[in-house]
Amino acid sequence: MSLTATGQPIILSDVNLSYGSQPVLRGLTLHVDAGEIYALLGGNGAGKSTTMSTLLGFARPDSGTVLVAGHDPAEQPDKAREQIAYVPENVALYEHLTARENAAYLLALAGRHPALQEIDGAFEATGLQASAWDKRLGGFSKGMRQKVAIAIALLREVPVLLLDEPSSGLDPRATADFNRLVHDVARKGAAVLMVTHDLLSAADIADRIGFLESGRIVDEASAQGTDRFDVRDLHRKFAREAVTA
Ligand SMILES: Nc1ncnc2c1ncn2[C@@H]1O[C@H](COP(=O)(O)OP(=O)(O)OP(=O)(O)O)[C@@H](O)[C@H]1O
């Protein structure tokens, strides 16, 4: 695992990015430590997806520093992506392959060849019921798909986990299961950056919450020990930002 001198797997420092004449990221600075869960909250158009695209090497900043486990995604996209497990809002898996086949195939593409027991162990850790392991993905719910995606992420043992709107479309039970899993991944040492509109989830699992407005962090809050976030307070901040964005 290659880290930067500061040991932070996710670094965005003073990042500026425009689409044509429209500035989208404006001096964005955001660092995530190993083992930390950072929730990025922001209204529509605040630049959350662009931030993800920048980390994945799909969008090139005009200036500033972006490092994923020490690699600049714009210069070395393959190296950066090797360090990232990315779970998009709608997980893309092979519909005609079973859960086990999806895991084996996608991990092979990433250069890993875990034994079947390891794949099953990861499914077990995610709470995906054993009766689904040999079923084709075609009939899976969104929650089940996310479990397969997280199992693959667990087996890749990468230092960076990026989650895009992970709880949208999940019922409260599935959201709680998913949050528990993300928590476990972070406790194993991954830096987790999640983009979300779900204040409850953010309050539940984030160590830090950043409010993104017009491409920069305008406010940040940290959980202090066992003191969690006050959701009503978050809502007030979020609503204000959404109004002023
Ligand atoms: N490929 C692109 N080309 C031009 N403009 C873009 C492109 N992608 C995003 N934008 C613009 O950049 C701004 C930020 O978009 P982005 O998708 O990053 O915001 P977001 O916070 O993810 O919003 P949402 O919550 O609606 O998904 C928006 O004004 C959007 O129209």
UniProtKB/TrEMBL annotation:
<feature type="domain" description="ABC transporter">
    <location>
        <begin position="10"/>
        <end position="239"/>
    </location>
</feature>
<dbReference type="Pfam" id="PF00005">
    <property type="entry name" value="ABC_tran"/>
</dbReference>
<dbReference type="InterPro" id="IPR027417">
    <property type="entry name" value="P-loop_NTPase"/>
</dbReference>
<dbReference type="GO" id="GO:0005524">
    <property type="term" value="F:ATP binding"/>
</dbReference>
<dbReference type="InterPro" id="IPR017871">
    <property type="entry name" value="ABC_transporter-like_CS"/>
</dbReference>
<dbReference type="InterPro" id="IPR051782">
    <property type="entry name" value="ABC_Transporter_VariousFunc"/>
</dbReference>
<dbReference type="InterPro" id="IPR003439">
    <property type="entry name" value="ABC_transporter-like_ATP-bd"/>
</dbReference>
<dbReference type="GO" id="GO:0016887">
    <property type="term" value="F:ATP hydrolysis activity"/>
</dbReference>
<protein>
    <recommendedName>
        <fullName>ABC transporter domain-containing protein</fullName>
    </recommendedName>
</protein>
<keyword id="KW-0813">Transport</keyword>
<dbReference type="InterPro" id="IPR003593">
    <property type="entry name" value="AAA+_ATPase"/>
</dbReference>
<keyword id="KW-0067">ATP-binding</keyword>
<keyword id="KW-0547">Nucleotide-binding</keyword>
